[in-house]
Specification:
The complex is a heterodimer of chains A (534) and B (428). Chain A contains 23 helices and 12 strands. Chain A is an alpha/beta fold. Chain A has 3 domains: 265 residues, 7-stranded beta/alpha barrel (Alpha-Beta Barrel); 96 residues; 117 residues, Orthogonal Bundle (Annexin V, domain 1), CATH 1.10.220.30. In chain A, strands 1, 2, 3, 8 and 11 form a 5-stranded parallel beta sheet that branches. A 5-stranded mixed beta sheet of chain A has the order 4-5-7-6-12. Helix content of chain B is 43%, strand content 16%. The radius of gyration of chain B is 21 Å and the shape is globular. Chain B has 428 residues and is of the alpha/beta class. Classes of the chains: A alpha/beta (534), B alpha/beta (428). At the A-B interface, helix 11 and helix 16 of A face helix 10, helix 14 and helix 15 of B.
Chain lengths: 534, 428
């Protein structure tokens, strides 16, 4: 049986309100609550809710014969929770059928994968956590914002424990190759790739109701005929699209719901195709080749590149200014700063600054709430300016209160390492229970040889975090005395914010520690490293 | 093709957008082989009995800085009619100017036409009479000259156009650069409105400088839409000399308003926006260049807001001074309440100055690389100014694309469209 992989992206950004420069410095309300509520309710009513109901009916009708997968961005989930919680309930109902796979992505639907690795991994972990919390499953498949992919992004994702990733079947990457097979990452062959069949996907997304299209109207007969016309060796047809296609971009009146309802029975009656999730395909299919993507691709526009988000000076400046604060923000334990930091990274803000639509691109105009990219830029920069002031003043205040408390009491800091670490765990969600498969796979690597202290640098961040959990902060800091900078940074970046402050204070205090003490502590750490890997 | 054109100023004396537009358009038309018989009002006091004189082309060439090929001047006949008509002036102001002149016998600065002007007593005492007299002379020109089409620029010349049409039977095209609604808001002078409407009705085709104006012509003058065609204005490419000698002597960023200080140009919105920006950032200076009936009110308002040390008035600027002003500016603002086209933002962009323009301007229809705001939205206006001053990305974008965009708005292209209109009128 040949496979169809039906995958839908569900995403809504937190749109910004009109934020003037005179709001900077005192008004921290950035988002257009009215508009966001209005839009998400409208889309839920026209698309998400009826589409979910349709999918549920289809699953009930066809049982295991119908499977579908979703990625839902964190910003969409947050807005559902705020404005239309019934959408979450209906996705949970879908999750309970077992025929639905939830796919991981960046929490904020951001562009952090483009060179901001730490932030990228942090957001992916946040998203994993949220999906597990809501749907009780840990994603094993990943898809990046707008299917952005490159070899390096694939490697980073593989390191996080994902085994499959979705991206675009871009012509300039594939050349003569067909997108209808399972491929793998060129550096890490363990990461499988499913490539979007853009022709068949876009026939539905863009052309379904286009009366000037020679194939209009698109009937299920016709669609199944096209599927059957594909070379019989080809194994999988990946139909990836925005979920809003059903009911919002293509209105109900176009017949889009009937199309999907009818498509299944047509496919089962007249073809040898079946529906599968990426996880199924990972199990069923063999990779045919690796795909090399040195420069990032996406599913946007004709060019399938990044120019919709990183194509002009406005976007570049906004991106650079935003991420000049990533290190500072990581250590802020103010939840409202953390929240806004996520929402400001959403790729849509950059999309609104795109100047490509001057020449073409009705699509861009349709999604853009601003009159011009310049207006979008000014508004975003005003908001960002205020955000940066907030982060800076957070540090100023902390510095002040620290000086104050130091003046009052100068007693040695005695902290309960356990509780501190628990808190830091909350800030940096640590991957919990891997599903069995990945755990099994990583085992042989770990048993390969006994590790020593210098191997800390080569451990994954997750392992380092686990290690930090096991040893108390005093042992850790005394062991780190005199260690090389590489090891130090590795450990420091995995410490929670509070733990880090304590750790640094410890280091200062332990200036005159004996080297025998140091080596004793190091031994203990090495013991822990080897223990955790077993 | 030979055109009898009733225009305004002509080089070397150009004071406003209308003169610039007529000149650019004529130059463009000549490139496509059109012969132009250009008629302008000019107060010279020693006019002949006929009431007009033909200017020798070489005489004009002498005091004009740009060099033209002989062909250009061969194709243009240039005429001046003795008249004290001036552009941009309504009936009330006209009377004031004329009487003031009699009383004080002083040089006029509003326009070159009145410069060195001596009241001869021969001209009509009020504008309406003068317009009629001008039309009578125009008809006598029309009876003596040969041409295929008549082209009249703005309302003062419409009666001349109509008269010329009646004498010659040739098609008339009226070119609407502005309407009474732009000049006066809703307090329309009925006489002016009537003349405008008559001209539009008697004409064979109407050219408007923007869709914005086209809409006014259709809606407020009741003209059938198929008769009205938009031909957007353009701008002359900048010569390198414009940047010479211009230097900024203040360390602050400079935000400039340049134009007549009248209701139509929205100077009050500029003052209010300046106040808002200065509250947040005192490291900016605002300049209002130009004069007009609202100038004193603006000065009072600036004083009232206590921003006088950061807000400057230059008075009327012309020629080189304008270029210098642009070269000193970091942002150019045109908050016009109603602007049929508005060439000055194009001149600013030509000098690499980013512009903020009102959505109620015709030029907003052709510009992509400009910030556009509603004239009444002071918040949006001040936000746009602040954005350009503070966010480097914007300036980079405007620098990269703005000049290029303006350089592509050529009079030649506008002239092709005008030529099409001529052909359409002739074949009608």
């Amino acid at each position: 049986m040949r496979s169809i992989c039906l995958y839908f992206q569900v995403h809504q950004p937190f749109r910004l309100r009109t934020y003037r420069f005179f709001n900077i410095g005192h008004d921290h309300q950035y988002f257009d609550d009215y508009q966001n509520r209005h839009i998400i309710r409208r889309v839920a009513e026209k698309s998400y809710l009826p589409a979910n109901k349709m999918m549920l009916d289809l699953i009930r009708e066809f049982g295991s014969g119908f499977k579908v997968s979703y990625s839902i961005s964190g910003t969409a989930l947050d807005q559902f929770a705020l404005y239309v919680p019934e959408v979450i309930h209906s996705f949970q109902e879908l999750a309970r059928t077992g025929s639905v796979e939830f796919i991981g992505e960046t929490y904020a639907h951001s562009l952090a994968s483009l060179g901001k690795k730490d932030e990228f991994l942090r957001q992916v972990t946040l998203h994993i956590q949220r999906i597990e919390e809501l749907f009780g499953v840990r994603p094993t498949t990943f898809r990046n914002t707008e299917l952005i992919y490159s070899d390096q992004i694939g490697v980073n994702i593989g390191d996080l424990g994902f085994h499959t990733m979705l991206t675009e079947g871009a012509k300039h990457i594939l050349g003569w190759k067909s997108p209808n097979f399972l491929y793998c990452n060129t550096i890490n062959p363990k990461l499988k790739l499913l490539l979007r069949n853009f022709r068949l996907s876009d026939d539905i997304t863009f052309r379904f109701s286009d009366r000037s299209w020679s194939e209009w109207p698109l009937t299920t007969d016709k669609f199944v005929k096209w599927l059957n016309a594909l070379n019989s060796h080809e194994e999988v047809v990946n139909i990836f699209m925005d979920y809003e296609t059903i009911g919002e971009h293509q209105w109900k009146e176009t017949g889009i719901f009937d199309f999907f309802k009818h498509l299944l029975s047509q496919i089962y009656a007249h073809s040898n195709y079946g529906f599968f999730t990426p996880e199924d395909l990972y199990q069923r299919l063999q990779t045919v080749a690796s795909i090399s993507v040195p420069y990032p691709i996406s599913w946007a526009d004709e060019e399938r590149d990044l120019t919709a988000w990183r194509g002009n000076e406005l976007q570049d400046e906004a991106f650079e200014k935003l991420y000049s604060y990533d290190q500072k923000v990581i250590n802020c334990d103010d939840p409202s700063i953390q929240r806004d930091w996520q929402y400001l990274q959403t790729s849509n803000h950059f999309y609104y600054m795109c100047t490509k639509w001057f020449s073409a691109g009705e699509v861009h105009r349709y999604f853009n709430p601003y009159g011009s990219p310049y207006e979008a830029f000014i508004n975003y920069m005003n908001v960002l300016s205020d955000f940066m002031i907030r982060v800076d003043s957070f540090y100023d205040n902390k510095q002040k209160s620290k000086e104050k408390s130091e003046k009052i009491t100068k007693k040695p800091t005695k902290i309960a390492p356990e509780s501190t670490i628990k808190k830091s765990k909350k800030n940096l969600p640590v991957a919990k229970n891997h599903n069995e498969k990945t755990a099994k796979k990583s085992k042989p690597e770990n048993n390969f040889k006994k590790l020593n202290f210098d191997d800390i640098v080569r451990l994954s961040d997750r392992r380092v975090k686990e290690l930090i959990k096991k040893v108390d902060i005093q042992t850790l800091s005394s062991a780190m005395k005199g260690a090389d900078t590489e090891t130090k940074t590795k450990v420091e970046k995995n410490l929670g914010k509070k733990a880090l402050t304590v750790y640094k204070e410890m280091l200062v205090k332990l200036k005159n520690l004996k080297s025998t003490e140091v080596s004793k502590n190091r031994k203990q750490i090495v013991k822990e490293i080897n223990k955790t890997s077993k | 093709m030979r055109v009898l054109m009733f225009g305004w100023e002509f080089p070397p004396h150009i004071t406003g957008g209308l003169g610039t537009a007529c000149f650019g358009l004529t130059k463009g038309l000549v490139k496509y082989g059109v012969e132009v018989l250009f008629v302008v009002p000019r107060a010279f006091g020693d006019e002949t009995k006929d009431g007009f004189r033909l200017i020798d082309a070489s005489e004009v060439l002498l005091d004009f800085k740009e060099s033209f090929t002989q062909d250009f001047w061969n194709q243009i006949k240039f005429m001046e009619i003795g008249s004290n008509l001036v552009p941009y002036v309504g009936p009330e102001d006209f009377e004031q100017i004329v009487t003031e002149d009699v009383l004080i016998n002083k040089e006029q600065h509003q326009s070159v036409f009145t410069k060195n002007y001596k009241f001869s007593g021969k001209y009509g005492p009020n504008l309406m009479e003068e317009v009629s007299r001008y039309a009578i002379i125009a008809s006598s020109i029309a009876s003596m000259q040969k041409f295929d089409v008549i082209h009249a620029h703005d309302w003062l010349t419409y009666p001349s156009g109509i008269a010329a049409k009646k004498i010659s039977g040739k098609p008339l095209i009226v070119h609407v650069h502005a309407t009474e609604f732009d000049r006066s808001g809703e307090n329309v002078n009925q006489n002016v409105y009537d003349i405008e409407r008559k001209g539009m009705e008697e004409s064979d085709l109407i050219i408007t400088v923007s869709n914005f104006t086209r809409q006014i012509v259709i809606e407020k003058y009741g003209i059938p839409s198929e008769k009205v065609i938009t031909v957007h204005n353009a701008v002359e490419p900048a010569g390198p000399s414009e940047f010479e000698g211009a230097q900024k002597h203040v360390k602050e960023k400079v935000v400039t308003f340049l134009g007549r200080v009248t209701y139509q140009k929205g100077p009050d919105y500029f003052v209010e926006a300046a106040h808002k920006v200065l509250k947040k950032d005192s490291n900016v200076r605002f300049v209002m260049a130009g004069s007009g009936d609202l100038l004193n009110r603006m000065i009072r308002r600036v004083a009232q807001l206590r921003i006088g040390t950061k807000f400057h008035f230059t008075g009327f600027l012309a020629g080189q001074e304008v270029d210098t002003m642009f070269a000193m500016s970091d942002v150019y603002v045109m908050p016009s309440v109603s602007e049929p086209f508005g060439i000055s933002p194009l001149e600013a962009m030509r000098s690499n100055v980013p512009v903020v323009i009102s959505k109620q301007s015709g030029v907003a229809e052709v510009l992509k690389h400009a910030l556009k705001v509603d004239f009444w939205d002071i918040d949006a206006l001040s936000d746009a100014i602040y954005g350009i001053l503070h966010y480097e990305g914007l300036r980079k974008m405007f620098f990269k694309y703005g000049k290029e965009e303006v350089d592509n708005l050529k009079w030649e292209n506008a002239a092709i469209n005008v030529l099409e209109v001529y052909k359409q009128a002739v074949n009608k």
